[in-house]
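Before the break, one more example. Copy the sequence into your notebook; we will annotate it together after we see the structure.
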Amino acid sequence: MHIVTNTHISSRSWAVIVWVLTRTAFLLFVFEVVRFPGQYIANDVSSIYHGWYGVLRGGTFPLHDVTWQYPPGAALVVLSPGLLPFLGYSAAFFWLAFLADAVVLGVLLRDSAVRRSGRLAAVWVWVGGVTLLGPIVYARYDVMVTAVGVLALLRFPRRPRAAGLLAGFGAMLKVWPLLLLIGAPRGRSTRRSWLTAAATMAVLALAFHLAMPGSMSFLTFQRERGTEVESLGAMVFHLGRHLGWHGTVRMNYGSMEFLGPHVHLVSTAAMALSVLAFGWLLLWRLRARTFTVATPYDAAFAALLVFTTTSRVISPQYMVWLIGIGAVCVTLRESVMRRPVALVLAATLFTTLEFPVFFSDVVASDKLGVALLLVRNGLLVLASLSACRRLWAATVPRRAARGLPERGMPAARDDRTSVLTSTSR
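Here is what the structure looks like once it is written out:
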């Protein structure tokens, strides 16, 4: 027992050491002490976020800026560097991103200690996955949203109201944390978490609407986005450029998008895929009967994965969402998402290669850029299919999957270390 304990402490120490070394490198890159290869990554903070900061401090949202495509709660993140007035805007933002990264590390380390299993798989998924994604993690605000999402999901088993509050707050930052509650087992905890999330969103939306004009302007700008060059649908045009398709790539609505013939059709198809994904999740929710302690985590990861993959835009920083929620999944041995999480980690490496390292090749649809995107997007598709198949197999009885009447099954209580079986009544 003494030897095992020492090994456990050593493993935790190694994880922290690797985190410190890699995050120190991130800070050197974003502060431009050392230049990261490829496209410049900090422009969003120094130019776009900083510009919004000035507008938001004036008491209004960026009403006429099409790059503002975020729920009103995002204003809190953009304004947060003002909490460090002794630093410039960019420097303050980078340090706050570093703090959010540290928070995720801390809660995952604490979770491994509370479970007393000695399992550090989740910690290494976070440490290693974010390392693969590179310093762009500190140059976008997605790591802050991911920290909120991780906290929400880890609190669900024991504190569903707190989970709902955090998920609702996260949804007002960037929508996707609302997906984290989709796997809640039927019963009182589900009602508590969903109602709390809805109430949190309603209160925040009303507060922003009353305090600052233009809080919902993001809906128009988001609706009018097209097909971004890194998305799954963009592969049609990358390959089409080699077969005579005559279109262009241009900065449009805040990202590099394809403009030209049939782009609207492909964008519509991507939205249709997202609708189909939602339909599948709804069907799963209706058919699922067997909920283990890991099911809320697994369902959240699968939902987030399919919506990311089918989106018209797959920005590199989106991968940090999947890394964070994937890390939560592997905190539990009961999770069925290990293979999809591994595929996401592989996709993360190719994400860094396509942006920022070889982004010029991606924009030009060169063979290298197209190859990197084919591999990255192919891995995301495989991960999505694998996640959905595994979630369905683990939770939907065969008779329910075939549409047959179900036999009653005994229900067990929710517990972080036991299996919960939920039967519809």
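The two ends are 46 Å apart (CA to CA). The longest strand covers residues 248-252. Try to locate both features in your own notes.
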